[in-house]
Amino acid sequence: ERTAERLAGKVGTDTDIVPLYGMLDGKAQDAAIKPATSGRRKVVLATSIAETSITIDSVRVVIDSGLSRLPRYEPASGLTRLETVRVSKASADQRAGRAGRTQPGVAIRLWRAEQTAALPAFTPPEILEADLSGLLLDCAAFGVADPSALAFL
Predict the structure, then answer these.
(1) Cβ count within 10 A of residue 36
(2) Is the dihedral of CA 141, 146, 151, 153 positive or negative?
(3) pLDDT, mean of residues 113-139
(4) Within 53-147, where are the H helices?
(5) What CA–CA distances, in Å, run from 38 to 16, 42, 56?
(6) Contact 80, 130 (CB under 8 A)
(7) What tens digit of pLDDT does each residue of 86-95 get?
(8) Which residues lie below 8 Å from residue 28, measured CB to CB, with a gap of 6+?
(9) Whole-angstrom distance, CA of residue 28 vs CA of residue 13
(10) Which domain holds residue 119?
(11) How far apart are the first and last CA of the chain?
(12) What is the structure's pLDDT at 114?
C-alpha cells in the first residue's frame, strides 16, 4: 500500500494501480487479474502470489525487485518473522515468465545481470524454516504419541 501511495502521484491519470496479494479478498483479486479497461493502463503491485498461482492476461512488463519476504522461525525467541531475502533463480525466472504469456513482453530486473549467478537455484522448502510446534500440538490433541511415525504422504 505504501508503494501504491508513492506511485499514485507519479503515473498518469489513465493508469490504475491495484494490489494483488494472498490475503486480499476475492473481489479485489479478481479486479487485479482482469484486463485493464480500454484506453487505460494498469499497474499490478503483486507479491509472490503472481509468480505461479495465476496468469494475468496482457502483462507486457514485469519489474522485479529481486526480493522476497519469507517466514523464518527463530527458535531462540519462539517467534516467526518475515525476512526480506534475495529471490532464487527459479523465482526470478518465474517472475520474468509472467510477462509475455499472452502477448509480447519484457522483464526488467532491478539488479545487475552478473548478480544472477550468485542467486540460489531454488528457495528452500518452507518446512525447513517453519515453526512446527502447532503441528506437534495438533498431533498430541489427536492422541498421536510418536509424530515421527506418521506417514505424511
Answers:
(1) 16
(2) positive
(3) 92
(4) 89-97, 133-141
(5) 12, 10, 16
(6) yes
(7) 999 999 999 9
(8) 18, 19
(9) 20
(10) 2-149
(11) 39
(12) 94
Instruction: State the amino acid at position 93 in one-letter form.
Output: D
Decide if 40 contacts 15 (C-beta within 8 A).
yes
Q: Which three cell numbers stand for residue 12?
A: 498518469
Do 118 and 73 touch, CB atoms closer than 8 A?
A: no
pLDDT tens for each residue of 23-74: 999 999 998 999 888 999 999 999 888 887 788 888 889 999 999 999 999 9
* Cell, residue 129: 524454516
3-class DSSP assignment, residue 107: strand
Mean per-residue pLDDT, 118-131 = 92
- Give, in degrees to the nearest 5, the angle at Cα 125 between 86 and 146: 145
Q: What is the CATH number of the domain that holds 10?
A: 3.40.50.300
38, burial (CB in 10 Å: exposed 0-12, middle 13-18, buried 19+): exposed
Total domain count, the chain:
1
Which pLDDT belongs to residue 66? 94
